[in-house]
Amino acid sequence: MKQVIRIGTRESQLAVWQAMQVKELLAGQNVAAELVYIKSEGDIDLKTPLYEMGVQGIFTRSLDIALLNNRIDIAVHSMKDVPTQLPPGIVPAAALKRASWKDLLVYKGDWQELSSQLGYADGQWANPLTPDSYRDYSPLTIATSSIRRKAQWLHRYPHHNIDNLRGNVNTRLAKVASSNWNGAIFAAAGLERIDLRPEQSVELDWMLPAPAQGAIMVVCREEDTAIAGICQAFNDADTALCTKIERDFLRALLGGCSTPISALAEVKNGQVDFQGNILSIDGQQKASIEKTIARDAASGAGNLFAKELLANGGQAIADSIQKTGTAH
Asked: Is 168 helix (H, G, I), strand (E, B) or coil?
């Protein structure tokens, strides 16, 4: 292919790292490529919490427009930022092999004291605390802009406070260092990809991730079948399957960045293990589902899991969130 493929990317260090991975994969097929930098709405407004912005695709829309206007040939996204319904004329071209799906806490202060308050000992998280067990502790303040992380944290630690934290990973780490917060929550993949994971961090094994967290998606124009074919060479089938299940689950629950919905699908021994949940904004209500299904039968499972969750407590929580009409 003689054409130099134009890769659209946001300007953050993490976004550029992801785009460079795709550029190197294309180079491995003797396909030349160049990066085209484009600002997104989510990069311009760095103060408003994401759930208050209430707009799907704030990190992807500018790239979608550039793609449809033929300024770029493909766009590279963190898949958790991509709306479950792509714009007409844009199709998935590849899902790169998933990195860590976990969230992690970047903490400050004395870890021995902090871990005792959080119920973490010998590398293990204890069962959720009871009101009696945290009565003697002062409330901690944890920062995040994610409504999903906020709800899950308050479900486990209802006596804690949550502050808003926006910006790219570099900006957020700087804010944590200069703040009085006890810690902040980050996606492990984002920090590890650009070698910024601090020593003072611990994985939150008990926290379910956002659908498709840790995965990278490449999209292209629907008519560009040649480019789609090139990208399929580095499509990871297990990642594509698991993220499809998670995103179908999210879509069937009518969720977005303003709804605390989590999902994780993993391929193990020819089967797909799935976990999902929806919480109320304050974390007090929670409905969960866990399923195992044969890999060959898993493609449409996300919708089925969502319907089952809605029938078992999820609908009441979703109705309450929609009735409130705000994420506060």
From this structure: coil
Q: Kindly state the DSSP code that residue 295 receives in the 8-state scheme.
A: G
**Other C-beta atoms lying within 10 Å of the C-beta of residue 157:** 21
Q: N- to C-terminal Cα distance for the chain?
A: 51
Amino acid symbol at 326: T
| Of 133, 149, 231, 218, the residue nearest 185 (C-alpha) | 149
Token digits of residue 56: 């799907």
Listed in sequence order, the residues at least 6 apart from 134 whose beta carbon sits closer than 8 Å to its beta carbon are: 117, 157, 159
| Pairing relationship of beta strands 161-163 and 141-143 according to DSSP bridges | parallel
Model pLDDT, residue 126: 87
Active-site residues, by number, are: 81
Three-state SS for 90? Answer: strand
Q: How far apart are CA 105 and CA 65, in angstroms?
A: 35
pLDDT, tens digit, for every residue of 179-220?
999 999 999 999 999 999 999 999 999 999 999 999 999 999
Helix (H) or strand (E) holding 268, with range, is: strand 261-268
State residue 48's pLDDT score: 55
Q: Is 28 exposed, middle or buried (0-12, 13-18, 19+ CB in 10 A)?
A: exposed
Greatest extent of the chain over all pairs of C-alpha atoms, in Å: 68
CA distance 200 to 114: 11
Res 45 pLDDT > 70: no
pTM over cut 0.85:
yes
